[in-house]
Structure formats: C-alpha cells, structure tokens
Write a structure and sequence with these properties.
Elements lengths: L5 E3 L7 H6 L6 E3 L2 E4 L2 E4 L2 E9 L2 E8 L23 E5 L11 E6 L9
Parallel strand pairs: 1-6
Antiparallel strand pairs: 2-3, 3-4, 5-6, 5-7, 7-8
C-alpha cells in the first residue's frame, strides 16, 4: 500500500482491502446495488473505477479493471488505447464480448478534485 497502486478485484464483501476503504470512495457498492450522487443501480451491476487510494493519497486504486481495451483491439496495436474514462457502471446481465466488458450504462471522468462532474 505504501509503495504501489492497487488493483482491487471483487466487491467490498469479497475483498478485504476494498471493504476497508469502501466508505471513503465516491461510488458505494453493497449487496443491494451501487449508488452515487442521486443514482442507483441494482446488484447485477458493477463499478469500474480509478481513484486516489484513501490509505495512501500518493497512489491509486483501480476496481475491477485493468486494460480497458478488449480482444477486438488486439488486431492492431493502434487500437490498444483506453476505452473507458475514470469510472464506469457495467450491467453484468449483458455478457462480455470482444469489445465490451458488459453493457456500459454510464461512464465519465472525475473533475480535478476527484469529484463527479
């Protein structure tokens, strides 16, 4: 945590580090669903996000993601650029395919203070 950015897979109920910082993140996720600002999504959705690590503000956490390009983009390295902004909500009812991790229902960048635009 002191030396590295962290990639957190799973949810706050399945990942102990995610659970430790969950209440300090802008997107709240629990067994009933996802909420942020005035929006809510059911439990069959998942957040993908990069955000400053609450345990070490000099580093970042990434939730449920790595490279955001997919198999389709392996055809040409010019396509291997980020496909998602700072955060996204994914509908898991739609199966992943060669272009998307599921249905991207909402996605955007945070502002310079790491708040929603």
């Amino acid at each position: 945590i002191a030396q590295h950015n962290l990639i957190l897979w799973g949810s706050p109920s399945s990942n102990s580090v995610y659970k430790k910082i969950a209440d300090q993140l802008p997107i709240q996720w629990n067994e009933t669903g996802i909420s942020f600002e005035d929006k809510t999504y059911p439990a069959d959705h998942a957040p993908i996000m990069i955000y400053p690590n609450p345990l070490n503000r000099d580093k970042y956490i990434v939730t449920n993601s790595s490279f955001t390009y997919r198999e389709y983009d392996y055809l040409n390295n010019a396509r291997q650029t980020p496909k998602l902004p700072d955060w996204a909500i994914i509908d898991l009812k739609e199966k992943p395919n060669s272009r998307y991790p599921g249905k991207v229902v909402e996605a955007d960048f945070f502002n310079e203070e790491w708040r929603f635009k």
